[in-house]
Amino acid sequence: MNTQEALDILKGKGYKYTEKRRHIIDFFVNENRYRTAKDLLENMEPNYDGISFDTIYRNLHLFDQLEILESTELNGEKHFRLKCAHQHHHHFICKNCGITKEIQHCPMDEISQELKHYMVDDHKFEIYGFCPTCQ
User: Fold this and answer.
1) In sequence order, which ranges of the chain are alpha helices (DSSP H)?
2) Does the record bear Signal in its keywords (predicted)?
3) Which of 10, 16, 35, 98 sits between 20 and 30 A of 84, alpha carbons compared?
4) At 102, which CATH number?
5) What is the pLDDT of residue 114?
6) Domain containing 121: what range?
7) What is the model's pLDDT at position 85?
């Protein structure tokens, strides 16, 4: 997903465009990793005097709900990254730097046999560890 696609989703759902929202989206477009609200706040503070955690969290959760961003819990804190726009896959996530690597294998292929009489609505599968750089 790129900045314009994300802004189109925002506009299509009836939310207004602001420079702050564009800045947030650009921040995640330029990252290939999960980042925290604190990371985003530190990035935005030089450009937006007095920006608050409340503004950051409100927009992060909105973008998560609109599926512009995806989130995960890492080291007891919520982290966000730009939603991947292509085929179904899962991620390895570095616990130190937050970088991700796509994993094409989906364990649901095997698990669905164990859940024959259940209706699975959604699932999430993530692997955590340390990337080669952080080992």
Assistant:
1) 3-12, 19-29, 37-44, 53-65, 108-114
2) no
3) 16
4) 3.30.1490.190
5) 84
6) 90-129
7) 64
pLDDT, average across residues 55-83: 90
Same domain assignment for residues 9 and 68: yes
Global pTM value: 0.74
Which positions make up the binding site? 88, 94, 97, 123, 131, 134
For the beta sheet containing 100-103, the strands, ordered from the edge strand earlier in sequence to the opposite edge, are: 100-103, 90-94, 126-129
Feature table: binding site for Fe cation? 88, 123
Based on the domain organization, do 14 and 64 belong to the same domain?
A: yes
> Per residue in 60-70, pLDDT tens?
999 999 989 98
* Number of domains comprising the chain: 2
69 vs 22: CA distance, rounded Å: 13
H-helix or E-strand spanning residue 80:
strand 77-82
Residues of each annotated binding site for Zn(2+)? 94, 97, 131, 134
